[in-house]
Amino acid sequence: MTVVSSRIGEDLLEDAARIMGGALTTSEWFRSIPPCRLTPLDADSAVVICRGLSANITVLRTPSGLIMADTGAIDTAAQIRDAIRQWEPSKPVHTIVYTHGHFDHCNGTALYDAEAKLKGWTPPRVIAHADVRRRFQRYERTASLNSAINKRQYSRPAFEWPTRYRYPDQVFHDELRLEFDGEPFHLFHGRGETDDHTWLWAPRRRLIAAGDFVMWAAPNAGNPQKAQRYALDWSVALRAMIELEPEFLIPGHGPPLVGAGAIRTYLEATARWLETLHDQTVALLNDGYRVDEIVQRVRVPADLAHLPWLQPTYDDPEFVVRNVCRLYGGWWDGNPAHLKPATEDEIAASLASVAGSGRALAQRAANHAAAGELRLAGHLVEWAALAAPTDPFVHQVRAEVNDRRAEEEPSQMAKGIFRAAARDARSRAALLARQGGGAK
Question: Could you tell me if 395 and 425 are in contact, meaning their C-beta atoms sit under 8 angstroms apart?
Answer without folding.
Answer: yes
